[in-house]
Amino acid sequence: MSDSTPSAESAVDAGRTAADPELLARSAAASIRARTGIDRIHTAIVLGSGWGAAGGHLGQPLAVIPAAEVPGFRPSPVPGHAGTLTVIRLPDGRAALLIAARTHLYEDHGVDAVVHGVRTAAALGATVMVLTNGAGGIRPSWGPGTPVVLSDHINLTGTTPLRGARFVDMTDAYSPRLRAIAHRIDPTLDEGVYAQFRGPQYETPAEVRMARAMGAQVVGMSTALETIMARALGLEVLGLSLITNPAAGITGVPLRHDEVLAAGRAAEARCSELLARIVLAAR
Ligand code: HPA
Hints:
The chain is an alpha/beta fold. The chain has one domain (8-281): Rossmann fold (3-Layer(aba) Sandwich). It has 9 helices and 9 strands. A 5-stranded mixed beta barrel has the order 5-8-7-6-9, surrounded by 4 helices. The longest helix is centred in the last third of the chain and has 25 residues, at 257-281. The relative contact order is 0.19. Hypoxanthine (HPA) binds next to strand 5, strand 8 and strand 9.
């Protein structure tokens, strides 16, 4: 008995360690440090549909790491999404982490998996978190290929990455300072409020009308939960949507995932360059 009791206790401890999302993020950060020799990053960028080529405009890649080789990350099951983590040395010496391995709530791996990239960025010392996505546009004037700066969000997922009584302020969750930099880089950029639905089905036209009545102009299936986690960890957030399609019911044309991806690819060169210019200006 005296032998089995301590080992039973350490098995419980090991179970706790595996279940602790902050420890998992620290272990991901340690793995990225070991593979790049980089001690800390300044900016982390989650690359959504249509934003994936930003790395080529940012600077010298130090390492491109398959996401599945870093604790807590997994390859994307969505066709058209890469599964890599790239560390880039920016021309001014800062380092950036590009996360092309987003986990969505609809994949059913739980909310900790959704925000693992944000926790890992914080564990690597990031102070700026850029969250990009492909999304549906509610404003009829926004055609496919329109980039939009997020001014706020509405979390319609019914969940949160925060546990217990953690009362995080969400006023100005999308940094006015970073938004101003984006507008300085491209004065034609519009702003919008993002409504995150759980998905994976696209919204019904009635749900889009609801989101519009609530004050949203953009609908998607990511970003808001990541922003909540980033704010809880003290990171400054910039949110950027690429409108890949008019939201359901806006034009009456049915939504097709392959067309949404194609619109993202068509706009990728321009959006990625815009993203890189904003990141380089945001210190
Ligand atoms: N709705 C939700 N997510 C999306 C959309 C949309 O219309 N387009 C791209 N991602």
